[in-house]
Every structure is written in structure tokens, then in C-alpha cells.
Amino acid sequence: MSPAMSRAGVAIIAIVALTTIVVVAIFYRDSGFEMTLGDGDRTVSLNFKDKTVDVADVLDRMLAVDEANASNKELVEALLANRGYYHITDVRLVNALTELTSDEESRPLSSALRNLLYDLKGPFAEPNPFAGVQNTLLVDAIMELDPRKTARDDETGKNATQPINPLMSELWRRSIEIQGIFRPHEIRATVRLARGIPPGTAVACTDSLLDGKQITITSAGMQKRVMVDAREFCGRAAPNAEMLLAGEREELYLAPDDFVEIAGVVPVAVSGTARRDPVDVSVVVAPKHFVSRPPGAMLP
Q1: Angle formed by the axes of helices 70-81 and 3-28, to 10°?
Q2: pLDDT (tens digit, 9 = 90+) per residue, 27-46?
Q3: What angle do CA 242, 244, 250 make, to 5 degrees?
Q4: SS3 assignment, position 249
Q5: How far is the C-alpha of 251 from the C-alpha of 203, rounded, in Å?
Q6: Contact assessment for residue 12 and residue 30, using Cβ atoms and an 8 Å cutoff
Q7: pTM of the predicted model as reported, rounded to 2 decimal places
């Protein structure tokens, strides 16, 4: 619905709400009359000199936006809102829409609003409309597009599936092309030397997001690919995905030989020991299950 059509719709609604009052007043009065809306101190009074009344003029006078009539306009809009009528720019309309259900009466409007979102039109047409999302409900809804969740039985009793959703198929295509949000994201980490760790393994805090995943550690031009085992009881909770992408460091522990390799140093001949200071590195995480496998190995 265009803004012009929206404003026209609002005007029609307001006219319908006021016409009955005005017509009754005209019918029972032989001369001019005064119409008052509101209660107590919050009232709007309109004086009419004769029986001829232009309803559009009544509407314009009641909804005038000039500073002198601002309170009148506010009162009239509140009266209309109390009966379920809202201006298209009234934030109370949003609150009313949150109570909209999917029953037979409101289904056409619900469907039209969803189509605005799907087509990124109207209030959803701003650049990067999802940048302000503060929860994962949108992701949860997209996950419901998984074809395995839309399976159903056809009339023959055999398993059938719903048509594949274009959004789901495009997300899948971009994921296998590693495009956009699916591209590898480099995160920051600090590695420390620790004994008792098998070579090729990086130990992380018990609640680490990296648990069970293959990572590539890069430092000073050196690279090392290891598997993460989150079994270290740390003094703080491991950073979550949001923290990692924001630049917070993951804490990792490597076996002596692996640590020496990634730190880019060799054992000191005199002391027979290697550098033990923590090393800041960058890490790229391989998706779960997408690790080096022997030929013929199957995904879980």
C-alpha cells in the first residue's frame, strides 16, 4: 500500500467515525450547533453556524497540525485509537499489530504485512534492515525452512516433501560458495605452552565455541592446523560467538613442539628450553565436520 493510499485510508476511517455524529446533529437541529469531543479538561469544541456542514472540513479542523491545535489533534487521535483506528504514522499502530493473530478475519492483513517484509518494502526497505536485530528469532525461523522439517506424507502414504523454499536454497548455495556471512572469519586468540597435550591438539576452556572443531592458527607467517579439545577449567567463561567476532581473544594451550612451531622460535641451546611467553595469534575455524577425512569417510 502506497503512502498516498495509506493517508486516504486513514481519512476515510476518520470520516466514517465522525459522519454519524455530524449527521445526527444536523438532522435534529434547526440552526447552528456545537460539537464537543472528549471529557473533562480534554475536549475539542467545533461550532457550526447552520445546518450545512462539510464533513471534510470537520475532519481537517479536528486533525489540524498547526501548533495552536496540536492538543486537539492529539485528543482526536486518542479517541479514534481507543476504537481501533490509527494514523499510519502513529506508533500505537505497531502495538496494535503485535496483537494481530492469524485468524480468518485478520489473515489477509497478516499476509500482506509479511509480503512487505519478504519484498523488503515499506518500513523494511531501509539499507541493511536487519542490522538492528537484537535476538536470534529470525535465524530460528529461517532454520525451520530445512527440507527435513517440511517432510510430509502424500496421499499414497509415501514420504513426500514440500517445494524447496527459494530463500533456503539460496542460503545453501552461498554457504557452499563460502560467500557473504559464510566466508571464513578470522578471530583473535592467545596461545600458551602447556605439557601433557597431544601434538596436533589445542586445549581450550570447557565451554569454548571451538570445541571439536579444526582450526588454523597463524602467527608471524607460520601456520598450524590443530583440533580443539575444550577440557581446560579456566577462571572465566570462554567468549561466545558475538564476543569473538567483536575481537575478544580465545584462550588456547598447545603442546611444546606445536607451540615452538607457531611461535616461530627454536629451543635455546644454553638452557634447553623454548620461549614460554603467551603468543597472540589469529585463528580461522573450519565448520563442524568439515575437517580432513580419509577417502570414503561419511559425514555424520
Answers
A1: 90
A2: 545 556 666 665 566 566 66
A3: 140
A4: coil
A5: 8
A6: no
A7: 0.64
